[in-house]
Amino acid sequence: MAHTTQHAPQHTAQHAGHHAAPRTHRGMPRLKTTVTAAAAYLIGLFFLFPYLVMVLISLRPQDELRKAEWFPERWDLSAITGFWSGGLADNLVVSLQVAFGSTLLVLLVALPAAYYTSRHHFRGRTFFLLLVLITQMFQPTAMVVGIYREFYQFGLVDSIVALILVNGGFNLAFAVWILNAYFSSIPRELEEAAFIDGNGRLGALFRITLPLAMPGVITALIFTFIAAWNEFVVALTLATSPQNQPLPVALHSYMGQYSVDWQGLFAGSVIATIPVIILFALIERKVVGGLTAGSIK
Known about the structure:
Shape: globular
Order of helices and strands: HHHHHHHHHHHHH
Number of helices: 13
Distance between the termini: 59 Å
């Protein structure tokens, strides 16, 4: 009995010391997390700084543009209100139509093409994918003369349809490649299990494959939308009338031969970034949700 009494405190002390030791290292993960978060915020502020300058200049009166102060003495909203009253709102609608139309066209063509090439190893498959990749190497600037001549023969110059077709065509290769990679990474056994449950090819595609490939679909969507939204050279060539010009081309009107309306230019640029921000805010959660959606029955 005495022997048990002598060793019990020792065992208890060792057991308590064994569990108390890791407490001394809890400060390191917290410090690492704090430093990482601080670095992330600094990097974020670094990239947001040009947009902050753009907003401040758009709200600065013309007589204060040359002053060194960060904030103006008085705020001026005339550039932002002038954007809507000056007719540029119609150009904003044209940009939305071109961007959404090009994105929809790319997804409608790239999804079946990427799915078929990932699930069927037909003769010439590698050559087909390489041919699709080669088309990505051609720049619209080098082909703008041929593009204009082709659409002129079809009577599509100065039309929104022409801009949708061009932007869709130049972004199709990237969408096919990235979607093909996502579809190829999804095990076929998941689709075969869906076949056993009574689903057809389309049912397995929409219920199993597409939810798992949603991050790739969202990536292709974002890439195509931003590329079509920012495209300038082809839009400047094909859209000959001011009412059919996308917003990036219409903003060029603020730049004259001898002067530049910086306040109006930056106000239009601020408004041009809002649709992209809204797009990211709407689909950001779906990118994370698509990583695991559809994998559990």
